[in-house]
Design goal:
This protein has a 5-stranded mixed beta sheet with strand order 1-5-4-3-2. It is built from 2 helices and 5 strands. It has one domain: YaeB-like fold, CATH 3.30.2310.20. Strand 4 and strand 5 form a beta hairpin. The N and C termini lie far apart (32 Å). By secondary structure, the protein is α+β, with helices and mostly antiparallel strands. It is globular and about 30 Å long. Helices cover 23% and strands 44% of the residues.
Length: 79
Amino acid sequence: MGVIYTRYAEDTIQDRKISKGFIEDALRHPDQEIAGKKGRTIAHKIMGSKLLRVVYEIEGKDYIVVTAYFTHPERYLRQ
């Protein structure tokens, strides 16, 4: 599957200094996937002490990345 970034995603990941390699790894090898709003899916990937969340949609054979951000794992993952 290919990966397409919305303009919003391009802007935010640049501002947040998140590499596309990290995002694509999270999409292809998530630690967890959960349902998001508006029919979207959120891929979770633990990276060191942070949790990368990638919000995306599937369109045909492509991932459409809406946004991505790092956060604290304890906020979203149950221990």
